[in-house]
Amino acid sequence: MNHHQNAKDKHFLWTLAGYEPAILKTCKVDQFHVTIISVMLIIVGIYATLAWTFFFSSVTDILPIALVGGIFMGIYIVCFDRALIASLSSGNASFFSLAFRFCLALLLGIFLSQPMIHKIYEPEIKREAQILMDQKVLERKAELEKLYASEVESLQDEKNAMEGQLAAKLLALNEAETDFKAEMDGSGGTERYGYSTVAKQKQTILLRHQKEYNALQTDLHPQIAELNTKIKSFEEKVTEETAKYQAGNKTFGTLLQAEALKSLMSKDESNTLRNHFYLLSLILILIELSALIAKLIFKTNSYSSKIRYAEMREVKAIEVEEELLEGKLEKYKALTSHNDLDIMEDFYSKSRDINDEKLDAMLKEWEANKTGSFSNYWKLFEEKFLVQQ
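Above: the chain sequence. Below: its structure as tokens.
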């Protein structure tokens, strides 16, 4: 029972690695090597499944989806490596296929190392991502301010013009008040102390300025207040949009984390992070290529020779079958042609007397019919006696 189970296990491993069990049974030395290659291929499949499941789990919170994606990629990697190992075993592997597999391992190693580095340096990347997010919030605020700048500037200019009118009128009022007080105490103007005629005139001017200033205040203050409200509404809109943008980006996305990783690498003067990233990528690449590396180490020359011999025998058998088929076709054509010629010759030989009788009858009819022309009877002769092709 155990022997039978071991045989089934070996058969499964050999088939998994792309080897033909019936041929491999005759290669005692290569069986051990192929078993090692098969185990390495299983390990590569498990690694690919786990690595890709981890990657998909970093971009989605739905575990079944991440698991299905990881299993699919694990099966894909195993099937592709199995095809390459089978082609190497038969000696038919091309440089293009090996180069493609190496490039695929290189790209996948770099691609998968990024989420792993993100997990290892998660605290540092989050801090850097927060700094980048703050910068993006400031950039967003600047963009919104620039978007509403023309409208705010127009409102501000209008407000400044009104405030300028009030300031000019207040200045005139202050000057009139100073002039009136100086006239009253005798320190200015006519230098006469008391409420003189000139003082009364200056008081009138002061009261007029006061009245105009009060009227201007009554007219412009509501407009200035309205302009302030509009300007404030734009400022509140910028603040609200900025807060909304910040609230919608509390969770750092993949691109922002990638930017944070790049920023950390540029700031890391010791190159520790960069070296760890390269080292992890190299390890992942070597793990993914381990089955092919094992195949290149174990040549399985005996199995390869028997595979090439079996392929050569099959090719020769097919060539012999093609030659036999071509010979049969040529013989069939020759016999058919010979048979057709014999039948034609026999037909013409036996129909000669009948043709002579019909020709004599036609000539007698032409002789009896004085109106028939040569061309008419020649066409009739062609239709009845000559073979039409």
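The chain has a mean pLDDT of 79.
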